[in-house]
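FACT complex subunit SSRP1, Chionis minor. Tokens?
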Amino acid sequence: MADTLEFNEIYQEVKGSMNDGRLRLSRQGVIFKNSKTGKVDNIQASELAEGVWRRVALGHGLKLLTKNGHVYKYDGFRESEFDKLSDFFKAHYRLELAEKDLCVKGWNWGTVRFGGQLLSFDIGEQPVFEIPLSNVSQCTTGKNEVTLEFHQNDDAEVSLMEVRFYVPPTQEDGVDPVEAFAQNVLSKADVIQATGDAICIFRELQCLTPRGRYDIRIYPTFLHLHGKTFDYKIPYTTVLRLFLLPHKDQRQMFFVISLDPPIKQGQTRYHFLILLFSKDEDISLTLNMNEEEVEKRFEGRLTKNMSGSLYEMVSRVMKALVNRKITVPGNFQGHSGAQCITCSYKASSGLLYPLERGFIYVHKPPVHIRFDEISFVNFARGTTTTRSFDFEIETKQGTQYTFSSIEREEYGKLFDFVNAKKLNIKNRGLKEGMKQSYDEYADSDEDQHDAYLERMKEEGKIREENANDSSDGSGEETDESFNPGEEDDDVAEEFDSNASASSSSGDGDSDRDEKKPAKKAKIVKDRKPRKKQLESKKGKDPNAPKRPMSAYMLWLNANREKIKSDHPGISITDLSKKAGELWKAMSKEKKEEWDRKAEDARRDYEKAMKEYSVGSKSESSKTERSKKKKKKQEKQTKGRVEKKGAASKSLPSTKSSAKSMSESFKSKEFVSSDESSSAESKKEDSEEEGAASPPPSSEDSASGSD
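Tokens:
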């Protein structure tokens, strides 16, 4: 028998909705991974108490009960898979997979049984329906009546809001069946009641989503956000992931809490809670518990009295209560040395963080994309300018995310990161060996090491060293005018981060503007020699032999494709650098081979040039003679045309006599001025060229006759 069984397209029932995912049964236990959220449910084999096979709406389902009372339901099995599952349970879990059908009589009276986290309404021995008590948000009682209210599920098309049970009175004295029913429900229900004092309170924290300033009260089972307008109570069971991300300006930190189901404000759903901290803010924190309780509950992860940076204290408390690792950026470093990339998503500018197992974009709207849900990525040219590019991600569900306006300098770093993570790149096409190496059933944030813990240890060591040293430079990085609480922080930070880039580009433009007039002055002075150069370039013979290549260029042309194949996606500049390194590292024997080829090419060129120069001389002499003849002919025809024009102007016209005196007087002045200018130009031509032309006296006499 196989040690593992795997099932695709299995649905887990959670709070009234069916979540698609993958189920794997092994000797160690049962693992289900949600395709949408990436959340992993891991049930150890030793915890399994009962397995039930039954017919459900989506075919057949499997219900698993654990020894601590938790219930897990998985639907989407085929009837033929019962035997395989039954044998597997007997062999590895030593459990009988019982077949129990639901009662479909339609009766509305029966018996209620409480078993662990489950309320079962039975008729006889058959269950009619079951209610996981963790879905109950409120329980109210009336006369002989108990009302259960449920958490609203946004993903389900139809959501069950409440169920009412009629509880008949009993003859037993001192026992109220309604209150007993309600207490059984409330003991297991997910009812958030702010009873007792908070463990600790963080005052006036800046929250980006939902926007505002909130007091955060930390309770043992939930988080309470108290603002001026809205209040949110967030159970720790709804927290999926925790992220701690440094801002690009190195002065602030983002603390991101991923939630499922999200918190609601009217019709708006917030899947992420994003807090913004300044690195300069410190706090001394005292937990509202005695030292024994702190040690017993948190096992050394927290102490009663703590002090340090505000962001560090919040993240440390949340990590201990939620019992999840904090995800921090991995080894990626951008062009500017930051661990993020400035880009735009939809209409807003933000920061994209490449993580060890995914990407996260903050902050409006926040987006988290895991590597295991990415189908491929694409590097596209920017639509408005060539100084930036777009980074596109398409998931296996067909959703596309486009992060635009990324600086061109970030391309190499981002491409290397994507290539190292073995993601499919659309531009290059799918290649063999590019499959993801990580486990499909592994949690998307469970790394082999805790990067956040290591980082905190390093920072602690640095702080201890600084404390031992003198505190002269303690205020070097503080900025009194900086106020992280202002509403326009995001805009200010964007302009601050781009200030260097804009100033450098402005300096570059100013340099160009200064150089432009100098270039123009050179053009005016050296106009004639530049024209001659252009004429010589235009008159370059295409049949002339080409200059021979050097030994390096011959080698590069022969090995360019090989370098490209060894380094896919390499840019032109990087290719030339790589080629230079390879050429330097080459042995003398191999270089001599290319030197011989270059020497042979040079000899062939010299031989071809001798043959070309002999033929070109005879051709050039012929062309010079023909040019001289053409010039003489053009000058002669020009002189004849001017002579005829002058003679025709001197003759009296019969038509002009009919015109007015003013017009005839005007035309005489116009004609005389034309003739004088033509005569002067003709004199200059005759003096310079010495060509045969009519004497200027004849022209003067002709003009005088007018």
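The radius of gyration is 43 Å.
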